[in-house]
Amino acid sequence: xxxxxxxxxxxxxxxxxxxxxxxxxxxxxxxxxxxxxxxxxxxxxxxxxxxxxxxxxxxxxxxxxxxxxxxxxxxxxxxxxxxxxxxxxxxxxxxxxxxxxxxxxxxxxxxxxxxxxxxxxxxxxxxxxxxxxxxxxxxxxxxxxxxxxxxxxxxxxxxxxxx
Amino acid sequence: xxxxxxxxxxxxxxxxxxxxxxxxxxxxxxxxxxxxxxxxxxxxxxxxxxxxxxxxxxxxxxxxxxxxxxxxxxxxxxxxxxxxxxxxxxxxxxxxxxxxxxxxxxxxxxxxxxxxxxxxxxxxxxxxxxxxxxxxxxxxxxxxxxxxxxxxxxxxxxxxxxxxxxxxxxxxxxxxxxxxxxxxxxxxxxxxxxxxxxxxxxxxxxxxxxxxxxxxxxxxxxxxxxxxxxxxxxxxxxxxxxxxxxxxxxxxxxxxxxxxxxxxxxxxxxxxxxxxxxxxxxxxxxxxxxxxxxxxxxxxxxxxxxxxxxxxxxxxxxxxxxxxxxxxxxxxxxxxxxxxxxxxxxxxxxxxxxxxxxxxxxxxxxxxxxxxxxxxxxxxxxxxxxxxxxxxxxxxxxxxxxxxxxxxxxxxxxxxxxxxxxxxxxxxxxxxxxxxxxxxxxxxxxxxxxxxxxxxxxxxxxxxxxxxxxxxxxxxxxxxxxxxxxxxxxxxxxxxxxxxxxxxxxxxxxxxxxxxxxxxxxxxxxxxxxxxxxxxxxxxxxxxxxxxxxxxxxxxxxxxxxxxxxxxxxxxxxxxxxxx
Lengths: 163, 580
Known about the structure:
The complex is a heterodimer of chains A (163) and B (580).
Chain A: E1 2-10, H1 15-26, E2 29-37, E3 43-51, H2 54-66, E4 70-76, E5 81-92, H3 98-107, E6 111-115, E7 119-126, H4 128-138, E8 143-148, E9 152-155
Antiparallel strand pairs in A: 1-3, 1-4, 2-3, 5-7, 5-8, 5-9, 6-7
Chain B: E1 3-5, H1 6-16, E2 21-25, H2 31-37, E3 43-46, H3 50-64, E4 68-72, H4 76-90, E5 95-101, H5 117-121, E6 127-130, H6 137-149, E7 155-161, H7 162-166, E8 168-170, H8 189-201, E9 205-209, H9 211-215, H10 219-229, E10 233-235, E11 250-253, H11 260-268, E12 271-275, H12 281-284, E13 295-300, E14 314-317, H13 320-330, H14 338-349, H15 363-373, E15 378-381, H16 385-393, E16 402-403, H17 414-424, E17 430-435, H18 436-439, H19 446-451, E18 457-462, H20 467-476, H21 492-498, E19 502-506, H22 509-521, E20 526-531, H23 561-567, H24 572-579
Parallel strand pairs in B: 2-3, 2-4, 4-5, 5-7, 6-7, 9-10, 9-12, 10-11, 12-13, 13-14, 15-16, 15-17, 17-18, 18-20, 19-20
Antiparallel strand pairs in B: 1-8
Helix pairs in contact in B: 1-2, 1-6, 3-4, 3-17, 8-13, 10-13, 15-16, 15-22
């Protein structure tokens, strides 16, 4: 099962490598990892998705908590949180395919952010499922290049994962 | 406090942390720091190899309970510390390791003697720092010592670029602000209640004790609890000394080379109270068949240990001493039970034993004799057969009197660690129980001991082979002794003399006691070369990956002298009387 963990970490050199090193040393698999600033410049927020059963998740959480630079570790309940990923996809767009591609873009509420004679770049945000579905549909036209972020996640309501 | 250089600030921090002694070896980038050490009151012990600096600091820490400090230069000096840091990490020893580093403007340029030591040691340190600005020195040192000694102790590395030690700063020792580090010491009263109820309900309890009890100084509370509920107590290698082995409730050590009765008791128990122990594979054997009927209460200061290797029924996060003290208050007095009778019968039936006939000195007998002649000694060990015999046949009574590399199993650890232990506890007799293989891994430290007049006694159980590996080859590889013969080279008496130490030798059983007495009475660094057979084995033995019930008995004859002594009088009535 895929779990999502949100981390608040100190914004210091070497923190990312400590976390990545912990995963590799303990044999945990990182599925995706996203890191970025928070509104407090002293801290960064990481979202890690990790594959494994409950026992592994518990170990991951506990081991992460032991790192001195890790301030908070929070497992995100999929029913109580929203999450988003982003992908930009360069897709081959022959004249006769363009309108169909545009339709797909519109249905997925995605955006076209670059247009050239033979290709389009599409930006899509959403859940992992939505992006996967979009990718599947675009594959028929020929995907030339794709760049994806990992997941970012936030608890619904007033509860917050903050330092 | 005014302006000072980075190097002076480092020494000021060490002074404020109460450091009396540093083990180290200088090098190019450390010249400014060593120049400041020249004027300092802090004693610096010059080792002959940086690995020994880390082990000596570790031995000092284990013997005294204080933070050990070692120092090595950049590049090879720093990498030579790694084995010592990893050893300390595996056994949760508080250590601050300082390393020199190339100047900040050369970092990343593959400069002369540059190594990314914070990167290299990341998986084997509790935390680490690369100091890039002299003004950070006070904060970093304060945090490093605090992290090293609190919670589950462990090594912290501080990497010090040369320019940082030269630049000036305004010294101010700041308060500790570590929002991400909150060691969880206070035990949860509800969990204590649950644990106490489970212990009272159980009919076949065993207390399984690890190094956490030693580090939290909880041995008195352990004794109180065990006597109240009449629970037999077994220790891990790290927990040795936390419970007196001559106590009727003692089961000695459990696991691969544990006593039969400790392993039988574990396997038949209906509840295990694990305190400051981590269910290592050498303890559990095959996890699936470990203590099949037992509920498990696990007390540990490190929440990540709970549920890591075995399923736990009642987790108790917190300091071992407080947990034991709370538990002792929460439980009622129990009577001597049929379970105690059963365990006592096992102790009588399956004592630790060894064959006593033959021409050669028995290593087990060396330990028993030493135990009789010098019962209060600090026993430091190397790794392998020597370590297991020292664990089994010396009667351990006091915490911090048995010092051994358990988790990492570092050959070469014992001698430098014994030097550190002796410098920390100069009034105690300190022995390094060694094999000829392990001793040679840091034998150069004879110079350190002789120059600093450290009277460590090294007992070399010299079988001329790498005995533990050879034992496995003997048992599981058809006696194909691949690369385990050392040919009884060198002559350890001559080596000792060459360094200016006292060298003694015993070859026959009749010489043993006199030689040991001479070693004990010696006031200088002493090496005792004791010739034993290469075929000596550590017994009993649970083969790797087997269940704890599958115990091989490798020694034929009757019980050891020591065992015979300790079982006489270990009856139920005695313990009741003791409390009456």
